[in-house]
Fold each of these.
Amino acid sequence: MEKNENDTISEEYIPYTRPLLFALLLTVEIPSILCTLLILLYFAFHWRLVILKQLQNHVILLLTIVSFLYLILDIPFSMNAFHTGYDLIRTLTFCLWWYWIDYTLLVVSLYLAAIASLQRHILIFHSHWFRLRRLRWMLHYVPLIFALLYPALFYLICIYFYPCEIILNETSAYCMSPCYLKDSILYNIDWILHTFIPVFVIGLANLMLVIRVIRSMKNARQQQRNTWKKQRKLTISLLVVSLLYFLLWFPSTIVGLVNTYIYPSLLDDLPDLYNVYNLYYFVGPLQPFMCFFALPELIKNLQRIIRLRRRVAPVMPFTMHNTRP
């Protein structure tokens, strides 16, 4: 995970980035919550159309819920630390819970984005597979359930049941790290399984999808062009969601890979590279906007409402009064 990398940043370096991070997160926090509520209301009022009949919207709904939990349960405490320079609560119970919810939500969102990147190949090129109930469960529902449950269980065991004794440091301004992070083997397994692999899958799967769509459109006959235009719209809407994860996670993943396995003194020689680890803070706040643009039906409904309100604009009655000199 990336949060433990941030814990290694020197105290001399953190203060320079902390006010900027607080200002940026504060700027997107409220609009992000409003956008999340808008999407959830849309799903609630149109669940038969957009949930039961459109499988591609399942992962968008789950990502929206995960982002909402991140916005209300996790990011406010990080913002407070950026603003004040210390964690508001530093008890053992809270710190372990915070690490668990933070790591769980981040990995769940990464896994959901990676699974969506793979599933959209089936949705676009082999959608008939999902007509069979068994394949629909194996290829669609089971991976999504795994993405929700596995990270929570993994970090529950590692954070709460790893055999060690956590010693509270009363002089520290921040929460103490979980003990398992000191185990180099377990730490590397955690990083490879829960950061490197999903980021790599997201990047590769979406690159292959773009190549397949372009080739298929070139080889399609004239009568198939209209069908591929619809598929192109579906492809673009689905790519929007994964693009955010790739752009914000890829830099820190590459830096972590090089610093851990190739050039161990990279961050010591180039301390400004620590900034790339702050990018993942914005995945949750920006995710609702990506989900919004991945829902063309919602955009059309909003445009329709705006047009109707403009047409039914109130008209002030004009009356003439006779006046006598």
Amino acid sequence: MSPLLRVRRAVSSLHRFSRTLSRALASEHKLAEPTLDTDPCSIHPAAVVHPNAIIGQGVSIGPFCTVGASAKLGNQCRLYPGSHVFGDTVLGEHCALLTGAVVGDDLPGQTVVGCNNTIGYHAVVGAKCQDSKYEAGDECFLQIGDNNEIREYASIHRSSKSSDRTLIGDNNLIMGSCHIAHDCKIGNNNIFANNTLLAGHVVIEDYVHTAGAIVIHQFCHVGSFAFIGGGSAISQDVPKYMMVTGERAELRGLNLEGLRRRGFTTTEMRSLRTAYQRIFMPSDASSGGFEERLAEVEQDEVLAQVSSVRSMVQSIRDCFAENRRGICKFRHWNG
């Protein structure tokens, strides 16, 4: 082979290597650049999605799902096969509807579900209330916060009138087959065990824990950090921090274990116990009536300085306010 031919081949190989290196560098640079991916949604061909529905980025809709004309699905929502969104319903980002779940209804009004909520298998959320006073055509509302887990076969209904709404806060665990009726107000960080049944207009504050198979009468209030024993029937109010149980629930003391788990100090719990004993467990007949015992706790120089004691006493007084149902009875209550 002539020297000239060898030189030409060497130059040609150098050119090919240069082109290969350029393509590799260009590919690496392209991977390093930020992408403007729109994260398109995935809709199964067997799903029925109305063209007017608003679908966010990264939404996944499985087969045999239904999404109505007025629905709005936030980014990264996931509808598992056979789940449905009806009526004027808003789902926040990162919500999941498991198989058989139904959210919303074709009624006037709206169902709003916040972000990062899970609606369990065959749960029904935002359906029409079971109240004979509801008039067809009236607006009705349900609003749910963030980070709630609503388990299988639970049911949550909209309000019974346009001037009210059913409200559920954040970080609640609502276990299987629970029912929350129209116009209920649920706070934050509550745990409702299986078959917890709430009638209309019930108010549950924060950090309430119910055991299984309990029922709460309409218009009752349950204060924060309360515990309701399994199989109980609540027909009157439960003040803050207290524990009740029974077929017609009675006060059984303070929810001390729940308070400890929620970070209450030993001093706070001792003060609450002392106040509870003075109010509900008088040592003798000379302790006076119920109102006198409440006033005694309020005027005690030590107990009055403890904020949780003041909060408990106010919660007890609120139970006797106008349009309230009074307080659950205590079996040794003198007064």
Amino acid sequence: MIPLILYDIPSQLEGKHWSSNTVKPRFVLGYKGLPFRVEWVEYPDIAPRMKAIGARQNKVDGREMYTLPVVSDPNTGALITDSWEIAAYLETTYPEKPIFPNKSKGLIHALDTAFNNHRGAASAFPLLRAGEILNERSTEYFVTTMEAIFKQKISEFSPEGPKRDEHWVAIERAMGTCKEWYDEEEGKWLMGNIFSYADILTASRLFLPQEVGMMGSGKSYLLMWRRNAKGFSKDSNESQQDCPIRMIGCQST
């Protein structure tokens, strides 16, 4: 099998990957055991590079933009944009080790929407730290683009004080709701003993805070939730084995 190609955005972090969006297909590829390699694309190069290979644009807040992740499958000639579409393609094309078991695709999409609605405006909060870990070529482009999308200066996304506190509350509420979903089941995963894309979405939400250092921002509940939620690690002895961030796998060939 020819390795698939995952187009991802590099950073200064060890391993380079950092984005909660591009890590979703990385987790799916790893879980399904599909060989892949990564092509790193700095932010200013995304549009010209994706246009050159024929990738489609994605709609972001009503704007058509070239975005990552994009996956190229040389085995079929497919070129897929958007993490959700990539997951659907990989499930259809490589059905072994399903991520949408029992026709759960619609339900998982609804859960993802519900979580994002709980988080609300706090979704911009992690972008403050994300801009600090990008490579120099990408930082200015990233800041300019995010400010255009959110229609405010990046320094105003989540200033220290009441607004920052509101964002922490929103994040805590969203993560708390997610934990409640897991607590309803007796098994390790959101569907009990059946692993699904819902668990990959949960792992991806914890990935960015962990990678950009939000865990050390004085708010311990994110770390506590990660350690104690079912399916992530029920005690310290399981933490290295049961956390989906480690368990799913995300290593390229």
